[in-house]
Amino acid sequence: MSEIFFKELRIPEPDYNLEVGSGLHGKQTGEILARLEQVLLKEQPDRVLVYGDTNSTLAGALAAAKLHIPAAHVEAGLRSFDRTMPEEINRVVADHLSDLLLCPTPHAVHNLASEGIRAGVHLVGDVMVDALYFNRDLSIQQSRILDRLSLSDRKYLVITIHRPANTDDRKNMESIIGALEEADKPVVFPLHPRTRKYLKDYGLLNQLPSNIRITEPLGYLDMLRLMSRAEKILTDSGGVQKEAYLLKVPCITLRQNTEWVETIEDGWNILVGADREKIIRAIDRFSPYQEQHEVFGTGGASARIREILGHVW
After folding, report:
1. Residues assigned a catalytic role
2. List of long-range contacts for 132-137, beta carbons under 8 Å, 24+ apart
3. Is 1's pLDDT higher than 80?
4. Model pTM?
């Protein structure tokens, strides 16, 4: 799935591809750690920069720590306070291993202080704001996704599902699909490979309601355009919650908690889990109750990070 992002966003191909595929979390993290360690030993970098909360984030922070290379964590300090989520373990450990902690929000700074982490902490804003603002106009110019799917402005929903708490639970998937069937408008469902597999295993893939329009995974520009003109977005993704907020589209989160508490507090996001009735009510009635407060900053996070890296290191 990464190839289309490199192409669309004109990102240079990486010098190294560790070629670690999907699998159990421990196995995947261990393989990344072992292969990355060899790269670091060969290249002898002065510093290691890790981003987010994936298994590669954890492996990168671990590899740097084992080799005594200073590490900086971009998007540090996020907490959902749900240790059943692999991402929560990844972000907590990466934070405690990193020398520089580059936080997107004041909440993130507070979370780190609560865990006794105060040295090397910087509030920089969110780099996703930079990426979205940079590519929003490009998506308008290049994406034809609305025409291809014959969608009318603000008269459709978008949904993304990929977390094991939903995909691996047949009852949850049936509940979510059942709620979508009640929507009186098209629901565009870009299907993650993991989600496709489970829908097929459950016998649901070929029995989806007629208002649900399945698509293959979309590139960033198409997805940005699709989300920007939706009436509402439903998701279990942390990144999509934040993008929905930045695009000023109401978000319905199919989880019991979120690391992006700012979107809840600002009234633009609601937690419904996989509860069929709550999802139906949110689709029908949920609406932001106030103007946004730019909780992720107004851009420039990347420049601030560059300045900090140059000054501190």
Report:
1. 162
2. 132/224, 132/243, 132/246, 132/247, 133/299, 135/9, 135/220, 135/221, 135/224, 136/224, 136/228
3. no
4. 0.93
pLDDT single digits (tens) 269-308: 999 999 999 999 999 999 998 999 999 999 999 999 999 9
Specify the CATH number for the domain of residue 72: 3.40.50.2000
Is residue 228 located within the same domain as residue 281?
Answer: yes
Considering all CA atoms of the chain, what is the largest pairwise distance in Å, rounded to the nearest integer? 57
Residue 6: predicted pLDDT: 85
Kindly state whether residues 107 and 190 are assigned to the same domain.
Answer: no
Q: Kindly report, residue by residue over 147-175, the tens digit of the pLDDT.
A: 999 999 999 999 999 999 999 999 999 99
Instruction: Tell me which H or E stretch contains 180.
Output: helix 170-181
Cβ-in-10-Å burial (0-12, 13-18, 19+) of 309 comes to: middle
Q: Indicate if 277 and 139 belong to the same structural domain.
A: yes
State the Cα–Cα distance between residues 270 and 159, nearest whole angstrom: 14
**At CA 83, angle to CA 78 and CA 85, rounded to 5?**
80
Cβ atoms 266, 292 nearer than 8 A: yes
C-alpha distances (whole Å) from 139 to each of 1, 67, 219, 237 are: 18, 41, 10, 21
Q: Tens of pLDDT along 19-46?
A: 998 889 999 999 999 999 999 999 999 9
The whole-angstrom separation of Cα 203 and Cα 197 is 10
Burial of 284 (0-12, 13-18, 19+ CB in 10 A): exposed
The distance of Cα 121 from the centroid of its chain, to the nearest Å, equals 22
Q: How many C-alpha atoms does 24 have within 13 Å on its Cβ side?
A: 3
173: containing domain: 130-285
Phi, psi of 202 (to 5 degrees): -80, -5
